[in-house]
Write a structure and sequence with these properties.
five-stranded antiparallel sheet; Chorismate synthase, AroC fold; about 375 residues; alpha+beta; 7 helices
């Protein structure tokens, strides 16, 4: 089964299943000399982990990461880094009745058609649990980028179902279970409680930002920074749409408005989302992602079994009513992996990041 490695110079190979003994990844290409221990990685995993609030799946996993290789005396050696996360709270019996049927909205049907077999336990390889190793790898990338370029990543929820959230402050994001940039989340709590009662789910729109990004990252024509960002985000479970900068809103903009004017003091806008011609401008990378409603719901739905006969499916077990809630740290990690890979590619081709012009990245 191919397609499990992301990145070229900073390559992350993801392995494991939702209900197997462990999940994890191997990072190949991390530069030597980076100070690294489990404590550098665990905080991001804690932000993503299940069971963290009553509004997400109640599967209780500590998601404790182990560094198996690639680090000696607290520093990376330049050799492959293996990160292991053991599964400790599987309930495979919840999926016994699904072995002969296909859940609508899941990869059950396509996996079975492609491989002639599948692991029905929690979705197996197609489970959102496979995002945890990418969060771990992203934490390594985040640390290197922060130390070498001062790059930082953050994300928030801007819409849940029909509820659009007006941005108030980044300071609110770590204070609520929704990663919402607002002080009052009671409306979101009531909304999700009603969804649970109805046995249904909803989608979400998330905003991910990278600041302090070096100028000049990205490789035209087909390895543009924004193209690789879209590729990375679409590789995350349940993501159905990606926008860079103004995104689809640019359709209604005039060229006189959309093109971000430059002045000696900086850019006068960021409709481009931090890239021009696929190369970073030094402005914030602005990414917006649409996540579909969780497919595992208690509402009965029509489907077929492996013999093609009509049946009805009710998905039992522990599931997120809105998978977008825990997606923020995942998407931050994927953006960090893209920037990290391009930073190493730029260094390999052009040397250290530099420019012949004075810095004009600040938005005025």
């Amino acid at each position: 089964m191919s397609g499990n490695t992301f990145g070229k110079l900073f390559a992350v190979t993801n392995f494991g299943e939702s209900h197997g003994p462990a999940i994890g990844c191997v990072i190949d290409g991390c530069p030597p000399g980076l100070g690294l221990c489990e404590a550098d990685i665990q905080p991001d995993l804690d932000r993503r982990r299940p069971g963290s609030s009553k509004f997400v799946t109640q599967r209780q996993e500590l998601d404790a990461v182990e560094i198996v290789s690639g680090v000696f005396e607290g520093q990376t050696t330049g050799t492959p880094i293996c990160l292991l996360i053991k599964n400790t709270n599987q309930r495979s019996q919840d999926y016994t009745g699904l072995a002969q049927t296909f859940r609508p909205g899941h990869g059950d049907y396509t996996y079975f058609q492609k491989y002639g077999r599948r692991d029905p336990r929690g979705g197996g390889r197609s489970s959102a649990r496979a995002t945890a190793p990418m969060v771990a790898a992203g934490a390594v990338a985040k640390k290197w980028l922060l130390e070498h370029h001062g790059t930082q990543f953050r994300g928030c929820m801007v819409q849940m179902g029909e509820i659009v959230l007006a941005f108030e402050s980044w300071s609110h994001v770590p204070l609520n279970p929704f990663f919402a940039p607002v002080a009052d989340v009671s409306g979101l709590e009531n909304y999700l409680s009603a969804l649970r009662h109805d046995g249904d789910s909803c989608g979400a729109r998330l905003r991910i930002v990278a600041s302090g990004v070096p100028v000049g990252l990205g490789q035209p024509l087909f390895d543009k920074m924004d193209a690789d960002i879209a590729y990375a985000m679409m590789g995350v479970n349940a993501v159905k749409g990606v926008e860079i900068g103004a995104g689809f809103a640019s359709v209604a903009q005039r060229g006189s408005v959309h093109g971000d004017a430059l002045s000696p003091a900086g850019f006068k806008g960021n409709n481009a989302g931090g890239t021009l011609a696929g190369i970073t401008s030094g402005q914030d990378l602005e990414v917006s992602v649409a996540v579909k409603p969780t497919s595992s719901i208690l509402t009965p739905r029509e489907s077929i079994d492996i013999h093609g006969c009509s049946t009805q499916v009710i998905t039992e077990g522990r599931h997120d009513p809105c998978v977008g809630i825990r997606a923020v740290p995942v998407l931050e990690a994927m953006l960090a992996l893209v920037v990290m890979d391009h930073a190493l590619r730029h260094r390999a081709q052009c040397g250290d990041v530099q420019t012949t012009l004075p810095p004009i990245a600040a938005q005025v």
